[in-house]
Amino acid sequence: MKTQVAIIGGGPSGLLLSQLLHTVGISSIVLERKTKDYVLGRIRAGVLEQGMVNLMRRAGVSERMDAEGYVHNGTVISNADELIELNFTKLTGTPVLVYGQTEVTRDLYEAREKAGGQIEFEVEDVVIHDAKTDAPYLTYTVHGEERRIDCDYVAGCDGFHGVSRQTIPDDVRQEFEKVYPFGWLGILSETPPVHHELIYSNSPHGFALCSMRNANLSRYYVQVPLTDKVEEWSDDRFWGELKKRIPAEVAEKLVTGPSIEKSIAPLRSFVTEPMSWGRLFLCGDAAHIVPPTGAKGLNTAASDIHYLFEALKAHYLEGDDSGIEGYSEKALLRVWKAERFSWWMTNLLHRFPDQGPFDIKMQQAELNFLRDNEDAQKVLAQNYVGLPY
Ligand code: FAD
Ligand code: DHB
Which residues are catalytic? Predict the structure, then answer.
């Protein structure tokens, strides 16, 4: 097979790129290791920055998002029983949208299928060849049958465990990593959200987050030691722990019910440099991971896709290669700012095993400063709603 852009990975990054390229007549083929149902069954991010919302609109896949997404003008940060209310729209002029990654992915699959887009599922053994030449190609197998795609460019959108990043030789690739000594235990439950806005909670019992998907679907998280197993967390134990970690006036209103999904995600900060090598470009989790505090994972994948899409468009439509040559540098500049914000939010709100009384005083001072200082609130709000592309 032949295509202009071969895309490895059918998560939000790969699908969004494929759909955007389609709108300007650039061909692509998406290769996905899992089945569509598997990809759609993963419960992940829930908050979209305006930049991501605009990209979905640009890609022509915003109808359901615009109808069903919830505009959130702010969020709450709680410090034990105290609520610090931040109004993003007042502070920055921009709200965020609550619309799950599952729904984003579903809308993108539907659009690609409607447009006759080529997506191959259950591919194995993808290998990128000759990325440093003008004629790169991919080989892979589907149900035991060997296949090949010749292309102009390869987009590595295959997440943290993909093959794309590893294709860049060790003596070129630099990796920066911080692994945190805890994970997030998350549950989804068919109960009304406890509050109309998200609550990020710092408490003596550890971090908790109250989020939502819709009026009768709540998403809650609590920080847990990395050694904990999901099986050790009954629903009752989860609800009990969550109640201890959120302000008493909020806990009183919490409606509990059976969980319909429960999983633990480890927390990690990770960046690989450069984000391109010859005709291979890395996007999203293939190039970087953030801890989820601050909701930057999916949104940072989206800004990569924006830069790569603009670069490919300029190449094919205007013969201008400056975007392609500058992709890695441009993307990394924004990636590192998202890394900084996620790392800062994580440090502000979690309990660390080696944290002493002094460190806790520092957290408290920072939270009090945030409560009392509108400039500090503005800095948080600007980062949360998303830095400009
Ligand atoms: P992915 O969504 O990982 O998609 C990559 C795709 O490539 C996958 O479908 C995978 O099957 C496929 N693939 C992998 N290897 C190959 C291969 N060799 N060949 C072909 N296909 C391949 N972000 C938040 O903001 N909030 C959250 O609450 C949140 N929770 C998360 C929980 C978990 C468990 C994880 C892993 C991530 C979470 N994130 C969260 C991060 C967010 O979901 C990611 O940033 C986002 O999914 C990135 O999209 P992506 O398309 O780049 O990568
Ligand atoms: C959700 C996840 C996040 O990491 C976050 O910061 C906000 C919301 C969520 O899954 O709803």
Answer: 72, 200, 292, 296, 384
